[in-house]
Design goal:
With about 325 residues, this protein is of the alpha/beta class. It is built from 14 helices and 6 strands. It has helices at about 5-10, 25-40, 65-70, 85-100, 115-120, 130-145, 145-155, 160-165, 170-180, 210-225, 230-240, 250-255, 265-285, 300-315; strands spanning about 15-20, 40-45, 70, 105-110, 200-205, 290-295. The protein has a 6-stranded parallel beta sheet, with helices on both faces. The chain starts with a helix and ends with a helix. The relative contact order is 0.17.
RNA sequence: GCACAGGUGGCCGAGCGGUUAAUGGCAGCAGACUGUAAAUCUGCCACUCAUUCGAGUUACGGAGGUUCGAAUCCUCCCCUGUGCA
């Protein structure tokens, strides 16, 4: 088969852009630019932006941005709902299908590595979260230590036990839960269901680390100045101390509300948390296959131009 | 000026004569990651050389001293905090 034939076959599939990068790298700016240049719609891939009412701490695209370009998977759950990677994957794939069917370009924009992988590679076919089992396991783990959990997993599923560190309680809990609920070792449920029907063009943003950290510091300051503590107070009053309010920024805002930290301290802790988080995101994304990396911020005009050309060239 | 308390690796902070390049924690860097993931966990982290075992150099405010041996004891000096003047 000639190159041209391969090309034409490949191009029979609709294109989907995946824009990834750490918080504060300018994904939103670049995604908007790409969407406007290419008649696109944006699918957010962010485990906190899915929650309604959590606005200031998530740096969601503004209302204006969202009228300029349609956004999906933002504000789709209440903060007291348990949202999961599986749920994300299903909904995002549905959105992808609809956008492509309408002849528009889907642009997945994300910082949540696990959700992105759930979308592109799928999760294994196995039991979803089993609340009772999980609660019991977690309790025993607290009493008997994570080493105990690790030994249990070793008996149930040696392969998984070898892969998960004995101190990593949450992962151990889930693995044991899966083995028990699924009645067989988790490592035997490895079949994933990858996304099909699209050509993915991955664009990664990796601006200079020091500048990224500066921007994050600044952005956190803006979040607090804009009233993150007040927003948190309102959400807390309405939903109680739910899991989603443990996320970055909200957790620290809560420490102001319960008097265990000053606003100054909470801000510093939030900035620190964002810097650490950005670092972890980068570690995750470096493993993503076939990423076209840009060493700039997403609002860098040069970067926008290159990215736009890249998208056009692949359409 | 006097009296206490203190000055330890980027920061905080243990150690108070010898298993010591110096417990911890933080920051930093690197890594992992299968429905809690903005979560959770791991490794490295004075400098130089060595692929490995390792070797060497410089380090606990400064200068001397005591000792086989000092971050740890003594003397003087320089800073910092608190109290009294």
């Amino acid at each position: 088969m000639s190159m041209a034939d391969e090309d034409s076959v490949a191009k029979a599939l609709p294109l989907a852009v995946v824009l990834l990068g750490p918080t504060g790298s300018g994904k939103t700016a670049l995604s908007l630019a790409l969407a406007e240049h290419s008649n696109g719609e944006i699918i957010s891939c962010d485990s906190v932006a899915v929650y309604r009412g959590m606005n200031l701490g998530t740096a969601k695209p503004s209302a204006e941005d969202r009228t300029r370009v349609p956004h999906h998977l933002i504000d789709v759950a209440d903060p007291d709902e348990a949202f999961t990677a599986g749920e994300y994957s299903r909904r995002a794939r549905a959105a992808l299908g609809e956008i492509a069917a309408a002849g528009k370009l889907p642009i997945v924009t994300g910082g949540t590595g696990l959700y992105l992988r759930a979308l592109t590679e799928g999760l294994f076919v196995g039991p979803a979260r089993h609340e009772d089992l999980r609660v019991r396991l977690r309790k025993s783990a607290i009493r008997r230590g994570s080493g105990w959990l690790h030994r249990i997993l070793g008996r149930l599923d040696p392969a998984s036990a070898a892969r998960i560190h004995a101190n990593d309680t949450p992962k151990l809990v889930r693995a044991v839960e899966v083995c028990l609920a699924g009645r067989k070792p988790m490592s035997e449920m490895l079949t994933r269901d990858p996304l099909t029907g699209f050509r993915l063009l991955r664009i990664g943003l990796n601006p200079p680390r020091a500048e990224l950290y500066d921007r994050l510091n600044e952005r956190c300051g803006e979040m607090f100045a804009a009233g993150l503590v007040d927003e948190t107070r309102g959400l807390l009053a309405r939903y109680g101390p739910v899991k989603s309010l443990d996320s970055l920024g909200y957790r620290q805002a809560r420490s102001v509300l319960d008097g265990s930290a000053t606003e100054q301290e909470a801000l510093a802790a939030t900035q620190q948390g964002h810097r650490n988080y950005a670092k972890r995101q980068l570690t995750w994304f470096r493993r993503e296959p076939d990423v076209h990396w840009f060493e700039t911020f997403g609002d860098d005009p040069e970067g926008v131009r290159f990215a736009t050309e890249l998208v056009h060239a692949n359409r």
